[in-house]
Amino acid sequence: MNISEKLNHVVARHDELRESLTTQNNMNSEELQRTSKEFSELVDIVRIIGEFRKMEAEAQDLAELIADPKTDGEMKALAEDEFYELKSKIPQKENEIQLKLLPKDEADEKNAILEVRAGTGGDEAALFAANLFRMYQRYAEQQNWRFIPININETGIGGYKEASASITGKGVFARLKFESGVHRVQRVPETESQGRVHTSAATVAVLPEAEEVDIEIDTKDLRIDTYRAQGAGGQHVNKTDSAIRITHVPSNIVVQCQDGKSQHKNRAQAMKMLRSKLYEVEREEKDLARASDRKTQVGSGDRSERIRTYNYPQGRITDHRINLTLYKLDKALEGYLDELINALLSEDQAARLAEIT
Questions:
Q1: pLDDT score for 36
Q2: Rounded distance between C-alpha atoms, residue 217 and residue 197, angstroms
Q3: First to last CA, the chain
């Protein structure tokens, strides 16, 4: 199917859905909701298609006017100016349409579960994990998202062995999904007397937050343990066994939550994490089958892959997947990540466009 046929198909489907919504013949509430959602997703692209076709028609009219020997010199000069201006804009509009036609990631509009774990490097890795966790918390604040810590396992010196949070808001997963992977730090630890630069790492995982309709969990497959929540240095956060650890026996996935004071709330958050992890396993299996020959590594989500280096002595942050280096480390750690994230999204779009053209 060429581009013109694709556009005709999209417009025809839009008109068909509009007619169905107008008549609503024998449509139950679920069908109405599904039809309304599909229609709303097509409204914007049909508008852009209309603009594109109008530009093409105007360019054709101008070309005929220019070619007409009866057209006087002044009119021809004006027509040529308009024609070349339009011709420069048409490819941009066509590219806009192609981006809209790209298959959508069904998880893009979902909320996300963030997990940060200290990797190689001992205490320094744990301190870096805490830096990353706070970086994402600040970014969430800038985006007006809600950031709710679920589980934080502190080292006692300000570091995190592991930490997780629920992030809710508009398009959370779409903007954070390329953060999964190994983040490496190069800096001089406070305890280093010789001033030598040490390298350590932390692992980040961003999972789309699954709803109950996405994943069905049989309670018989769960082992649930309660324990007393603890803070840094072994101090008890509370006096009751409010912390929850859930093991999904078939997959051996373990989740835990101790941040809330209520056992009921901790259990709900832990179940949310478990659903998201099982949903991500399903997504990874589908992605592997569908995109085994994917040319880009931007969206691989491989958590063993080193994706970024934070170099403190040079004040630089480098994303290795797209060979982008910014000398804005301080800003990035304060949560100013849009420049990095937008570059990753653009690279992913370009790679996916190359696959379909």
A1: 87
A2: 47
A3: 11
Mean pLDDT of 70-95: 91
- Summarize the confidence of residues 220-233 as an average pLDDT: 76
Distance CA 161, CA 256 (A): 14
Token couple for 332: 């990035």
Q: Are strands 316-319 and 306-311 parallel, antiparallel or unpaired?
A: antiparallel
Question: Average per-residue pLDDT in the chain?
Answer: 85
Better-scored residue on pLDDT, 283 or 85 = 85
Q: Residue 335 corresponds to which amino acid? A: G
29, exposed or middle or buried, with CB in 10 Å at 0-12, 13-18, 19+? exposed
Each residue of 7-33: pLDDT tens digit? 888 899 999 889 888 887 777 888 888
Task: Say yes or no to pLDDT of 289 above 80.
Answer: no
- Edge-to-edge strand list for the sheet holding 306-311: 146-154, 160-168, 112-118, 198-208, 181-187, 306-311, 316-319, 324-326
pLDDT of residue 232: 46
In the chain, the percentage of residues whose pLDDT exceeds 90 is 46
